[in-house]
Amino acid sequence: EVQLVESGGGLVQPGGSLRLSCAASGFTFNAYWATWVRQAPGKGLEWVANIRQDGNEKYYMDSVKGRFTISRDNAKNSLYLQMNSLRAEDTAVYYCETGHYADYWGQGTLVTVSS
Amino acid sequence: QAVVTQEPSLTVSPGGTVTLTCGSSTGAVTSGHYPYWFQQKPGQAPRTLIYDTSNKHFWTPARFSGSLLGGKAALTLSGAQPEDEAEYYCLLTYSGPWVFGGGTKLTVL
Q1: pLDDT by residue (tens digit) across A95-106?
Q2: Closest CA in chain A for residue B103
Q3: How far is CA B92 from CA A61, B8, B12, B23, B25, in A?
């Protein structure tokens, strides 16, 4: 069974850090690009970052450049998002996504940035 | 980064046909943007319906189809069902970065 399971979300103060993880199973994780997408409460989907199969090519949305780092460990079938200098506007459910054609989505993990 | 635009809301009658569109601030949408369409229902993760303009996953109902129309990507629903009521998002790729549209809330009424 294909599964993507995100973890690491929670409540953090502005300026703080969190590391999100996404554990993949049931398919060949290292065959695909992988992506983080977020959704603020009551808002639309927003692409955050993606990473190539070998981890050597990465792209970020403008507002997270320099603050967020996407990475992956293919030996552990895992995707990560290190989030630093968090802001209130980063509050969202964060989804990981991968697959040949965006086939697979996790259920999301909620990040709340608030004092 | 580019801005991708969608109709904020549309209504379709059960059994009817509706077309959702997806435009780009950089000009005409082409197959080179590899347009995607996603469906999201309340409290659920998104589900991919269409990829690369018009290709369907095995789980995509046959009543959904994707195309390019008048410089935009388009998602057409023919024979709407009550369970099609949802938010629909398009996605365009720009040689690495992705951009989602703001979403279309589709009501079947």
Answers
A1: 999 999 989 999
A2: A44
A3: 14, 17, 25, 9, 11
